[in-house]
């Protein structure tokens, strides 16, 4: 649970500080990783 919350905070900060298409791609990748972790 802590790992998921940490990743969410990092992604949000990344999106806020860098409003670019790369940030959106990073967010999509992070959500996919979160889904993988949630499966476990």
From TrEMBL:
Name this protein carries in UniProt: Macaca fascicularis brain cDNA, clone: QbsA-10231
